[in-house]
Each structure stands twice: as C-alpha cells, then as structure tokens.
C-alpha cells in the first residue's frame, strides 16, 4: 500500500508520559519485591526498554511471544505461545507490558495463560489504548495514551515489520 506517515505523538510527549506511568507503577509496587515485567514481543520492546529503566527496586524483565489466529467464523482468536517466559510466575508480582491494546484478544489470552500459574498479582500496562476497537474486555491498570482508531506505527509498533525504530508515534496515511 502506498502511504506516508505523519507524526502523532512526539518523542518528548512519550518521554513525559513514561515519567508519569513510572511514578504510578513505582507507587503501586512500593512494597513489592522482585517485580517481574513481562513484555510481549515484538511491539513492546522499545516501551519496555524505556519504562523498566524508570522502575525502582528489584525488577526483572522477561518476554513472551504469542501469535493470534482468526478462527474464521467468529472474531475471537486463538492465541498460541511461540516463546514462553523463562521466569517462574507463581507467587510473583507480574506486570504485563504492552505497546498497544486493539481488539484486546492478545492481552486477554495472555492474562488467562499467566493467571493459571498463580502469580501473587497480575497487572497490565499499555502505552496506547484504542478502546473503540475492543472486542473483548481486558482490565488495564496503567494506560499511557488513549487514542482514536487510527493506523499507527513507531516506537516499537510496525506496519509490515517496518517503522518499529521510529522514535515517535506516527499515523499511517494511505496515498
Ligand atoms: C500488535 C500489538 C499488540 C497487539 C494488539 O502486535 O503490538 O501486541 O497487536 O492487538 P489486539 O489487542 O487486537 O490483540 P502484533 O500481533 O502485530 O505483533 P508484534 O508486536 O510483533 O508487532
Ligand atoms: Mn504486539
Ligand atoms: Mg505487529
């Protein structure tokens, strides 16, 4: 598709938002030891890198890779684990770190998969939320930006694997 991109959220705005999110997360986990931040590959990598450096205390990071397949008849998707976390989840405070919640299918399934392993607590953090696109409800604890249903890229988010390296978030505009 022929397209162009247009900056929507600047690197400075992202930076300021991360300070706010980190403050909330640090306050929430002030009494916690060994917080485990779990990022979903690949989109969350850039956000995780910037966020985890603002979190205080003993923090560990880990990653999961999942893929979702449409089942055809319904909009609900089957989510398969391609790469699991290496960390023990049981008894831990776990914070899932995502770049974007769209339909909610990915996070909903990942949440269920991790809850089975009996974490001490499980919370969700997303940089971007597109509530208009939601198909399944997911409880989100920390949200950076709530955005309209726009096609976006950058800061880890791709269009056909491109643009993850953009330091800001941009709209994709078809030409
Ligand atoms: C994107 C995004 C979220 C997910 C959100 O990931 O990074 O993980 O889709 O969509 P949902 O709420 O409708 O499930 P994608 O599957 O494109 O993989 P990627 O992170 O490797 O780009
Ligand atoms: Mn993703
Ligand atoms: Mg993607």
Helical proportion?
A: 10-25%
Uncertain parts: none
Summarize the biggest pleated sheet: 6 strands, mixed
Class per helix and strand makeup: alpha/beta
CATH class: Alpha Beta
Radius of gyration: 16 Å
The number of distinct structural domains comes to: 1
Number of helices: 3
How many distinct beta strands?
A: 9
Ligands bound to this protein structure: 1-O-pyrophosphono-5-O-phosphono-alpha-D-ribofuranose, manganese (II) ion, magnesium ion
CATH topology: Rossmann fold
* Average pLDDT score: 95
Task: Specify the overall morphology.
Answer: globular
Terminus-to-terminus distance: 8 Å
Order of helices and strands: EHEHEEEHEEEE
Order of strands side by side in the largest beta sheet? 4-3-2-5-6-7
> What is the level-2 CATH architecture name?
3-Layer(aba) Sandwich
Strand content: 35-45%
């Amino acid at each position: 598709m022929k397209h162009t991109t247009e900056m929507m959220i600047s690197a400075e705005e992202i930076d300021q938002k991360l300070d706010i999110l980190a403050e909330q997360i640090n306050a929430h986990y002030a009494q916690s030891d060994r917080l485990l931040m779990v990022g979903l590959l690949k989109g969350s990598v850039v956000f995780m890198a910037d966020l985890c450096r603002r979190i205080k205390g003993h923090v560990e990071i880990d990653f999961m890779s999942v893929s979702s397949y449409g089942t055809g008849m319904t909009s609900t998707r089957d989510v398969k684990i391609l790469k699991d976390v290496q960390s023990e989840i049981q008894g831990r405070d776990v914070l899932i770190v995502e770049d974007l919640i769209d339909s909610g299918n990915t996070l909903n399934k990942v949440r269920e998969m991790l809850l089975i392993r009996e974490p001490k607590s499980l919370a969700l953090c997303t940089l971007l939320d597109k509530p208009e696109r939601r198909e399944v409800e997911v409880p989100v604890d920390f949200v950076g930006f709530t955005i309209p249903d726009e096609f976006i890229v950058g800061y880890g988010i791709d269009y056909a694997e491109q643009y993850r390296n953009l330091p800001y978030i941009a709209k994709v505009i078809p030409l």
